[in-house]
Write a structure and sequence with these properties.
Layout: H1 18-32, E1 35-40, H2 43-55, E2 61-67, E3 70-78, E4 81-86, H3 98-113, E5 120-127, H4 140-147, H5 151-166, E6 169-173, E7 181-184, H6 189-203, H7 210-213, E8 220-227, E9 230-237, E10 240-247, H8 251-262
Antiparallel strand pairs: 1-5, 2-3, 2-5, 3-4, 6-7, 6-10, 8-9, 9-10
Helix pairs in contact: 2-4, 3-4, 3-5, 5-8
Length: about 260
């Protein structure tokens, strides 16, 4: 009698649907409002925790920073990037380059961290909607690097991003010896150059207006009259100088941004 032949066993094939199943499981967790297991006890922990979440996120979703059971900030993540950070009425970073966006986000996260003493957790809050993919964003690596920069560098970047978004014209001089750079409406260029030259005269000990003679080793912010509902704001930090022509109604917000960034 011939032995009965059995069919050869098929080799186990990898589950082609596993990645999709993992995404579906993660979206389900998002909708459930689950907390991420990690807990941040230091600012470095917080940045590392957020960076991991950025790297693990492809589809748009929101996560909340939670302290003492209360949501203190909402982050929008998409395509492995941090797109938006909403806290205290602030959200987004305007039209900024990736490196600048990372510095702005890092500075805001530091301010959020320093607003309390209790640990912070991440809570998955669901899918993200109502944001533009063209908004300035940053990768996990951008954020980690920005958080390691000296505070003064991050402070300056945050304020400059705010001023750039509000000013009609800017003049920036990085040091006493550097050539000033201008950007914006050309009608105001000459007025800013005059102020810059007058300030240079004050540094050299020559005549200058009282406002420009006021120098300090600390960062300083000054509002100068300009006419027609406009003002010139002057920000100085070390040898760096920024002059901006803004609407008079913008000066309070810019002064608040300056004080918040430099804690003056």
């Amino acid at each position: 009698m011939m032995a009965k032949l059995s069919h050869p066993r098929k080799a186990k094939q990898p589950d082609a649907h596993a990645p999709l199943r993992q995404i579906a499981e993660r979206l389900a967790a998002d909708s459930a409002g689950d907390d991420v297991a990690a807990e941040a006890n230091t600012f470095a922990d917080l940045i590392a925790m957020i960076a991991r979440e950025i790297d693990e996120t492809v589809l748009p979703r929101k996560v909340a920073l939670v302290r003492d059971g209360r949501e203190i900030a909402i982050l929008t993540l998409s395509n492995r990037r941090l797109v938006k950070l909403k806290s205290g009425g602030q959200k987004g970073v305007g039209d900024a380059a990736p490196g600048k966006a990372a510095a702005v986000f890092a500075r805001r996260l530091q301010t959020i961290w320093e607003s309390g003493d209790a640990p912070v957790r991440l809570r998955l809050t669901g899918r993200a909607e109502g944001f533009s993919v063209s908004e300035a964003s940053c990768s996990a690596r951008d954020l980690l690097e920005a958080a390691e920069q000296p505070a003064t560098h991050a402070d300056a970047v945050v304020f400059l991003a705010e001023l750039q978004a509000r000013a009609a014209t800017l003049l920036v001089r990085e040091s006493d010896e550097a050539t000033p750079k201008t950007d914006g409406e050309t009608a105001h260029f000459e007025a800013l150059r005059v102020i810059d030259r007058e300030l240079a005269g004050a540094v050299a000990g020559k005549g200058a207006s009282a406002a420009l003679r006021q120098t300090s080793a600390r960062p300083s912010f000054t509002v100068l009259p300009y006419g027609d509902g406009l003002r010139v704001v002057m920000a100085r930090e070390g040898e760096g100088l920024v002059l901006g022509v803004v609407d008079a109604s913008e000066t309070t917000a810019l002064m608040d941004a300056w004080h918040a960034a430099f804690r003056t």
